[in-house]
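Archive entry. Fields below.
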Amino acid sequence: MLSLKAVTKKYGGFTAVDGITLDIGRGEFFGLLGPNGAGKSTLISLIAGLHTPDSGSVSVGDAPPGAKHRNACHRPGLVPQSIALYEELTAEQNLRFFGELQGLYGTKLRYRVGEVLEAVQLTSRRNDRLNTFSGGMQRRLNLAAALLHQPELLLCDEPTAGVDPQARNAIFDMLESLNRGGTTIIYSTHYMEEAARLCSRIGIMHHGRLLAGGTVAELLTRLPFDEQISFPVTPATAALAAQLAGLGKVISEPEQYHFLPSAGSRLSTFFTLTESHGLPPQLFTLQRSTLEALFLHLTGRTLRE
Amino acid sequence: MNRLRTLLTLVRKEFALFRRDRAALPLTFLIPAGLIFIFGEIFGLRNPDSAPGGIPVAAVNHSDQPAAARIVEALAKDPALDLGTGEQTESADEALRELIRQNRLRFAVILSPGESSGVLRGVHLRVLGNPRNAVETQTFHAVLQRAVLAGLPELLGAPDAGDAGRSTFLSRLVKVENEQVTGSEVKAPSAASVVGGWAVMFLLFSLTISSTSIFDEKKAGLYQRMLSGSVTRSQLVLGKFCWGMLLGIVQLLTLFFTGQFLFGLDITGRLPLLLPVCIAASAACTAFGMLIASVTSSAESARSLATFLILVMSALGGAWFPVSLMPEFIQQIAKVTIVFWTMEGFTGVLWAGHSAREILPCLAVLSGTAIAVMLAALWRFRRARAFE
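PREDICTED_STRUCTURE:
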């Protein structure tokens, strides 16, 4: 469905995407996970054909992205990070406009507008202007506008930014339903929970590079530990952190230490050490291996940074 | 004390916001200062010796009277006029009329022998004119009156010369015959330039504001969505251009028909020729707006730059007052403005009654400008990756 070969994109001296190679099959729900500035949006715009790579190649289906001659359904549907709709127009006017730009007219356009409004549960608000919608409703319509031409490939660039959990779940349900119907989805996010819930495969991006890729289970096998222990940075814990270096990996953040025990080390040794420093057990949080922990392990940073 | 501190904090916040506002700083200080400088240059304030280039006038003296020669001499000395002289023949009259129709002359003064009077041999004065602008016409007649008094100083010392008496005496000595070569059938002489002037200025404003919507659409990610579909960048630019032209044509026609309704301008009768001028002017003004959008980085900076350029072009191009009243070098600069050629087109059609062939140069300049400026804007958009 989608093939990227050693794709690089630079802006002046800044490398936004750095030699990414990736294949995504038809019907996959692929997540691009990484913090802000990792290069996810640039990669999505390269796939959408908005930019051309400085080196490497991108092909969607059999053609380069952005080929305007394609049938509508072969062109990717793009859900931009911002609400890319006209505030002054009604929901229906917005959808009719973007539908016509995708080559839909007359009865077919009317039918598709009705269908996507129904899918995002905004039929009753079709004649209301966008600036009267809540943030969640705007996000749903933002998604609907990308579905008008029934794309085989849907590119979602952080489509839930700034929405409440209820609206987020509604968008997740919609995307899952689309994916079950055969739509290939590429979903960029910096929320680990979103990627873990939705995506069949995930690529972890950092500084324009794809650090790791695979299913959640495959990715977690890359962690050399099953759990991590986090505790706050204080003068008392600093001495402990120094001693723990012998038992595993200690990652220091401004407010937190993360201790990743090495494969052979025992937790009992850890707790003996904490007791010897007089530190109460409430200071320590034990976490199972997660994508967050993997990201921390791969980059030394958290996804929120 | 705390209240004062709060007040200071609020003022400091206003200053910080003002400093960060790309439009506020130039609009508050730079643009007014720039306009003061430019208007000062227009009116020769920095160099009092730099007189206006003058209203283009021809004087043809057929009289052997010394008074007639003195009148011509006085006209030539007046800085408000740009005087050329010539021999009068029967064909010269028609040649002068043609020059006036072509807008190369605004007035022609023809002095011929008048009938003898008891006191002085009189002078017969004929004035051929194109009073297309009220300010210019009044200036010319004031200068002519001054020249006549300089040529015939005897008038000032005339006996029993109350104002009414002097006027009667003058008319006996100097017979002035006016012939309006162009615009004689125009119902509202001043309205043509007033309506045209304001129309073209607001055309530029509205089309520039329309073009700067590019920044808002880009910021909202709308171009990303459009370009990921079947739309090309060229179509986006062309779409903006076509809308600008349509908006401009409708705006101009609306303003001209308002002029017809309010001042009796004949728009309906001149529509077949006015419409091409409106189309060409709208194209040039839209291209100007697109160029502004292409060379700036935000809607605010585009609007600041546009405000400055539009005010300067309107002043220089003759939208506010006649170009002929400005110094010579300013008149040359005026010719590179869209406003000048648009005003030439409007007055040509509405005032001088020009034919299709006669307005062709205006149409060619405006259309050429539109194409050249639009190509420059396209190049800039491409270079600045404006739609990415």
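CURATOR_NOTE: The two ends of chain B are 52 Å apart (CA to CA).
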